[in-house]
Design goal:
Elements: E1 8-13, H1 17-32, E2 37-43, E3 52-53, E4 56-59, H2 61-67, E5 73-77, H3 82-94, E6 98-99, E7 102-103, E8 114-115, E9 120-121, E10 126-127, E11 132-133, E12 138-139, E13 144-145, E14 150-151, E15 156-157, E16 162-163, E17 168-169, E18 174-175, E19 180-181, E20 186-187, E21 192-193, E22 198-199, E23 207-211, E24 214-219
Parallel strand pairs: 1-2, 1-5, 2-4, 5-6, 7-9, 8-11, 9-12, 10-13, 11-14, 12-15, 13-16, 14-17, 15-18, 16-19, 17-20, 18-21, 19-22, 21-23
Antiparallel strand pairs: 3-4, 23-24
């Protein structure tokens, strides 16, 4: 009997730097979980996409759905842009695609914690009790989520961010590396929190907030965090 028989194909949607990191997380999970996936591949809509990235095959969305039965593939989205995550997620939901969550090997799911679909919790990140996480969020390396934190959908939390107790993070939010959010603060939908910022008060929707203590400097009207390709 083929050891891969019955196993699915993991499709990592977006093949940039974050995608390559998440591929390594998936390889780690696959080695521990007795071959969870038969194959790990990239999916990306970039017309200049290479056919092999770090040894993984890469396809456009049209190619992946043409080459594999839809019931045999499952997706996780690796973009570091919240609104790109939302756009891709909406497309996959419309196409009736399956999502999978990726949790690092040391992850502990405490009692009374609720986690939706399509989430990534990368190496070293930890959740406390009574945390609620929506769908399609990317929690990067060594993030700390304290008790009663609530995270919406399509959010990106960068490495070493500290989210203290009773914080609410709205949909499509980006939190930069090393940011600290004070207990009880609410982060509005679509906000961008700059790296190293210390947020001590609520933010408006779509606000770009930086500094210590953090202050709003503009609104994220173009709904982008990065300007370069590959995120």
């Amino acid at each position: 009997m083929d050891m891969g028989e019955g196993l699915k194909i993991l499709c990592i949607y977006c093949a940039g730097g974050a995608g390559r990191e998440i591929a390594e997380l998936a390889v780690s999970i696959n080695s521990i979980d007795k071959k969870k996936w038969k194959e790990i591949v990239f999916v990306d809509d970039n017309k200049e996409l290479e056919k092999s990235i770090n040894g993984f095959k890469a396809y456009s969305f049209k190619e992946i759905t043409r080459n594999y039965e839809i019931n045999n593939i499952e997706f996780v989205i690796s973009s570091g842009e919240p609104y790109i995550r939302k756009t891709i997620s909406d497309k996959l939901v419309q196409k009736n695609c399956s999502f999978v969550s990726l949790f690092h090997a040391g992850f502990i799911n405490f009692r009374f914690t609720e986690i939706g679909f399509g989430n990534i919790i990368d190496f070293g990140s930890q959740l406390s009790c009574n945390v609620t996480i929506g769908n399609n969020n990317y929690i990067n390396r060594s993030v700390s989520l304290s008790h009663d934190v609530k995270i919406g959908n399509n959010c990106v939390i960068s490495p070493c961010a500290i989210i203290t107790g009773n914080v609410t993070i709205g949909d499509n939010t980006f939190i930069g590396a090393g940011a600290i959010i004070r207990n009880g603060v609410s982060i509005g939908n679509g906000s961008v929190i700059g790296m190293g910022s210390v947020v001590v008060r609520d933010t408006e929707e779509n606000a770009v907030v930086v500094g210590n203590p953090a202050k709003a400097v503009r609104f994220n009207n173009d709904k982008r965090v990065f300007t370069s390709k590959g995120n």
